[in-house]
Amino acid sequence: MFQERKDRRHANRAFDHGEGVTRFRMRQKMISIGDDYWIDDESGDHQYKVNGKALRARRTYHIEDREGRRVATVQSRPLRIKDSMAIEDADGQRVAIVKKAVIGPLRDRWRIKQEDGEDLRVVGNILDHEYTIERDGYKVAEVSKKWFRVRDTYGLDVGPGADPATVLAAAVAIDAMAHPGD
Asked: What does pTM read for this prediction?
């Protein structure tokens, strides 16, 4: 038990030092039809575009690489008790569902139910873009706005072994559900 806690603390500390972590910056476009984001790497180069489709019955976001190829789709799931969004891969296969708990007495509670793999837990302050995505207490990703002064810009660190497309899509889904009118 003690060794497991020590290992988890050491693994999570990798995020503080950037060891094996892929860093992205998500920046929402100021003027656009729909919710469009650029996702840049550490050096500021565009890596992904999140193309929010306007005027649809269901909120839909396509995540595309630099060449315009779709790598993931995030889509709302209407008529559900819990607010949720489905994540599909480039082939249209569902890979995860992001769900918000019905009642969260102290803070928002979110789950990412993966089709292949263990479920992920989202912990922290969603509204302020300060949260982590965890699997069994180990950080998979960290979202933070603390390094950015620009409106609608925040960082996303993806840990080693995590699928960046799924983590980025989950962050887009959480952002869309937490800030529906933005």
From this structure: 0.81
